[in-house]
Amino acid sequence: MKKKMVRGLVVAGMVSMMMTACGSKETLGTADTEVTKTTDEQEENTVPESAMETVEENVIKVDVETENETTTATQVEVLADVSREEKIDIIIDEIKKRTAVEAYELKIIEDTNPDIFDSKFGGLPYWDMAMEYPVDANQEKMMLLAQINFSKANLQDERLPQEGILQFFISTNDGMCGVDYENPDEQTNFRVIYHETIDESVTYEQIVAMDLPNAGEPQNVETPLTKEMEIEFCKTTSYMEPFIYGFEEVFQDILMDRFGEDIGEQKSYEYVTDDEYAYIYDEISNAGNRVLSYPFFTQYDPRDSMDEDKAEYYDTVLLQIDSYWNENNEELILWGDMGVANFFINSEALKNKDFSQVMYSWDCM
After folding, report:
1. Considering the domain boundaries, does residue 73 fall inside one?
2. Per-residue pLDDT for 90 more than 50?
3. Would 239 be classed as within a structural domain?
4. H or E stretch including 250?
5. Are residues 235 and 284 in the same domain?
6. Which of 109, 135, 136, 137 is nearest to 123 (CA)?
7. What is the per-residue pLDDT across 47-78, written as a single tens digit (0 to 9) for each?
8. Which residues, 6 or more positions from 344, have their beta carbon under 8 angstroms from its beta carbon?
9. 250-288 burial: b if 16+ Cβ within 10 Å, else e
10. Does residue 154 share a domain with residue 300?
11. Claim to verify: residue 130 and residue 205 sit in the same structural domain
């Protein structure tokens, strides 16, 4: 049976987690590890000096002959004489080196009143009055889950749109927050809509007159959101964590390349102890609200159950929304029992601003 790092294995109960790279001390609550460093104080978790000395001592130079000349390249000698603790640290360091990607954490800003054009979770959406509003399988209007205004975000990231508004809608009356585990990319009870141009003449009063479901209102009991929350983007670095599609291959390559170990069909969670697995998971966790990050799951990567071509197609996290408590331990977002939701897209489709094929899934403990 697979072992899965659940949130309580790292720290029992609810604790806080800081969104990095925001330039100030901000404690945001997911149900994972507590971090309370300022941006200037934050440092990447690196291999201990003793382990680094071992690595440096085992680096050798080799000549590489090319067609026209001989050059010198660096080759790392297989490490055999290291402690178990150093070995786990080296594995973590290698995971970071091999899988690092630039991503964004979404910082929740409380006690603000975002308007219909702002980036936010919940609330009333911007809407083009010339378009038909999305409805679910029961022809009921869907609720705005999240809205991202790229024109205001000014991210200057070629992987993302530079302007326009991207919206995520879910059904509030299907009992599943719009998810269909059998057909996770069929936009029936969820919808992803992109407005490339924004009509700034649309007013709040016009949107109110549409009589839309709104997170936080008493009648909307089937929603993970308790209220409208403004969000802003903070740059971070994301690393591939256990139980993500493709992780086992990376783990096996590291063991072979760095330690000369071929573990065959053995999985990472079988190779390490529970404490070591918790440590690895804690060091590279992607919990929180994110864009373009590696995903985080409380269960398993749903792409594992897809055929290989389809699993590889959904290679990018368009949006991740995690269960969240603020500093006062107030529940603001809750997917089932401390769960998390992910929207996946193909990287090329994202560059082309094509949101017709998006995979949506959420799981909980």
Report:
1. no
2. yes
3. yes
4. helix 247-259
5. yes
6. 109
7. 444 444 443 434 433 343 434 444 443 445 67
8. 295, 303, 314, 315, 316, 317, 318, 358, 359, 360, 361
9. bbbebbeebbebeeeeebbbeebeeebbbbbbbbbbbbb
10. no
11. yes
In the block, residue with structure tokens 């809205």: 147
Write the burial class of residue 69 (CB in 10 Å: 0-12 exposed, 13-18 middle, 19+ buried): exposed
Two tokens at 112?
Answer: 């603000």
Assess whether 88 and 169 both reside in one domain.
no
Structural domain containing residue 293? 1-37+81-114+228-328
**Residue located via tokens 């975002």:** 114
Task: Say how many C-beta atoms besides its own lie within 10 A of residue 25's C-beta.
Answer: 12
Instruction: Burial-class residue 1 by CB neighbours within 10 Å (0-12, 13-18, 19+).
Output: exposed
Q: What is the mean pLDDT of residues 282-289?
A: 95
Dist. CA 291–CA 298, nearest whole Å? 18
Same domain, residue pair 110 and 123: no
| DSSP classification of residue 135 | B
Opening angle at CA 350, ends 349 and 351, nearest 5: 90
pLDDT number for residue 77: 61
Query: What token pair was written down for 155?
Result: 């991210």
pLDDT at 206 over 50: yes
CA-CA distance, 25 to 239, in Å (whole number)?
22
Q: What is the mean pLDDT of residues 288-292?
A: 97
Shared domain for 238 and 100, answered yes or no, is yes
Amino acid identity, position 132: E
Are residues 104 and 5 located together in one domain of the fold?
yes
